[in-house]
Amino acid sequence: MLTTSLPGGTWTLGGLTVTRFGYGAMQLAGPGVMGPPADRDGALAVLRTAVELGITHIDTSAAYGPQVTNQLIREALHPYPDSLHIVTKVGANRDPQGGWPPARDPRSLRRSVHENLETLGLDVLDLVNLRLGDAAGPRPGSLAEAFETLADLQRQGLIRHLGVSNATPEQVAEAQAIAPIVCVQNMYNLAHRRDDELIDALAGQGVAYVPFFPLGGFSPLQSSVLSTVAARLEAAPMSVALAWLLRRSPNILLIPGTSSAAHLRENIAGAALSLSDDDLAELDTIGR
Predict the structure, then answer these.
(1) Is the pTM of this model over 0.85?
(2) DSSP conformational letter for 142
(3) Which end of the chain has fewer CB atoms within 10 angstroms, the N or the C?
(4) Tens digit of pLDDT for each residue in 198-233?
(5) C-alpha angle 225-230-232 in degrees, rounded to nearest 5
(6) Count of CB atoms within 10 A of residue 233's CB?
């Protein structure tokens, strides 16, 4: 069994044991998640540091760059340790303006899965999330055709496990009626708690919930309550926000991103912060 000193311990995604504190590679690409990083050596160092520190869950996508983060992961870490599990997502492309046009038709999904396999240097992808909705958030509508395409690729042996991203609760249920899912990856943090009921339901099913933008994303979390609790604990507000997520539910897995090895270490230390019941009660008022 994998043991780790990282905060939060481990979780099992299907048959894959991962650290609850993972790493999101999106910020390794250039500005707007387009093009190469300004500091390629620094980007490679972050990935190597993540693995050296015991992280076994790295989140990426062929759309980041595009292809940039996958290529960096391969250069930094291939051949991959047996304990390392790379999670990717499909369902969106990039346009020249940096937009994220949907690409959820069967042909595009198959092409994206093969692109991920090639750029990561893998014969099978551990976990593929189907990205739904758009940049503004989840959008209602059936995912059947797209998810059935991924389920078919899973039956072919190209994907081990499936998940959904940017999904409504109804879409989560629809996906589960087609094939088992091991995670849901949606926007969630102290200030954006639309998925509270979904998180609790998934926890009861043993399904992981992976919040993207756990610290607010491109608009960092701002809260007087958060600042007050952080000052009392003599900690950074973002440390408190990460620690709260790990305490929120045992099925929450963190993938905060950074392009700095030093910042990665700070995030790990921050997530290990001890919060009292009074701290949690005060923080819980933020997004209610």
Answers:
(1) yes
(2) -
(3) N
(4) 999 999 999 999 999 887 766 566 788 999 999 999
(5) 100
(6) 17
